[in-house]
């Protein structure tokens, strides 16, 4: 970007970027994500920052990995991976607060070879609105 605020050639806005990213995989709704996790077909990954988790609570069974650590923690070949990240076939369902940052995160996981990665439509707020379980953060 130049100092005058002009867009560089090929630049896109965030809305177009989200549309492009989301066209590369199938997103999942709250009830389907709940069922996939319940049956062991998916790992729920909560990337919300601590203040939001403290304020709103936790998704039961979700692995908490803040966004800035996601790729390191879910890379099956990485030395800092979570124990659940054993295969590129892992179906990770990324959860952010409202379903925007998680789309970009899921696309990043696809670049690492996690071809089944997806994100939760509407994020944590949609999960809660669907009446799905939420645990309070213990103090």
From TrEMBL:
SMART domains xref list: RHOD
Protein name, entry field: Rhodanese-related sulfurtransferase
Rhodanese domain segment(s): 38-136
Highest taxon of the lineage: Bacteria
Signal peptide stretch: none
InterPro entries given in the database record: Rhodanese-like_dom, Rhodanese-like_dom_sf
Organism: Streptomyces griseomycini
